[in-house]
Design brief:
single chain, 259 residues, alpha+beta, 4-stranded antiparallel beta sheet, globular
């Protein structure tokens, strides 16, 4: 009777680990003198050998409650007045520093942001604070209206999403600043200690810079180094390792430069 080892090759940097372990097991049996034949059977679904893991079928990119939901000018939220059920105020050790406005995020995004802020401070990059986070549909109406009134329709909508099209409504997006480093909600934030840390290490905590430099034709928004989007460590790491910086490109979606 053959000895069967079941494994899976996942779409991740670790996709060969399971197969390698099976082959090593077969070699071990051979060297130990085991006479039984061995057979490797690749099957789905299967376990992930090493974290962080990524499987393209783990979450939806269409459902508003999914950490992978893609919201842009061509893809509004499926529920116009969607409100996340797990909104929470992140429990920072120093809330007056990190969340002086008492802002909300979805629970997993909030927990990850606490870890990110702690790591950034430990690395000497400063105190990270939440400048904007969850926004309701009605609140986004006012944000969009103010931006358009101040900058005009084209420039205003390159900065502020129309209601129902904003990532902030998902509770997964947060605009950040750093205490005493200036460049609040400005492109120069990318040059601050905090901005450089986030761009380099944010993925380790599940965050991406959602609107990277030079990608306005795809995302529909100007470069926003302060706008972080939580997608989870698995997807963020996969994007980092493959060099794909934009969700639309990663999932093979069309550009969304306009409504």
């Amino acid at each position: 009777m053959p000895i069967i080892f079941r494994d899976s090759i996942r779409k991740s940097p670790n996709r060969m680990v399971g197969l390698t372990l099976s082959l090593l097991t077969i070699l071990s049996l051979f060297l130990s003198g085991t006479t039984a034949s061995a057979q490797v059977v690749l099957s789905e679904p299967a376990f992930c050998i090493a974290e962080p893991c990524f499987d393209a079928e783990d979450y939806s990119i269409d459902e508003a409650a999914s950490p992978w939901v893609v919201v842009n000018k061509q893809r509004p939220l499926e529920i116009k007045n969607y409100v996340p059920v797990d909104l929470t105020k992140p429990a920072f050790p120093s809330p007056r520093t990190n969340n002086p406005y008492g802002l909300l995020l979805s629970k997993p995004a909030g927990e990850a942001f606490i870890k990110l802020a702690a790591a950034l401070k430990k690395a000497g990059a400063g105190d990270l604070l939440m400048q904007s986070a969850y926004r309701s549909y009605n609140y986004q109406v006012s944000v969009h209206s103010r931006a358009v009134a101040r900058l005009g329709l084209k420039a205003g909508e390159a900065l502020a999403a129309r209601p129902g099209h904003s990532e902030h409504q998902t509770g997964l997006a947060v605009d950040v600043a750093a205490v005493g480093q200036g460049c609040v909600i400005r492109v120069c934030f990318s040059k601050t200690r905090a901005g450089r840390y986030l761009a380099k290490y944010g993925y380790r905590f599940g965050f991406i810079v959602r609107y990277p430099e030079g990608e306005t034709a795809t995302t529909g928004y100007q470069y926003e180094p302060w706008h972080l989007r939580y997608v989870g460590v698995g997807l963020a790491t996969e994007m980092h390792n493959t060099g794909v910086t934009v969700l639309e490109n990663f999932w093979g979606l069309g550009p969304a430069p306009s409504y």
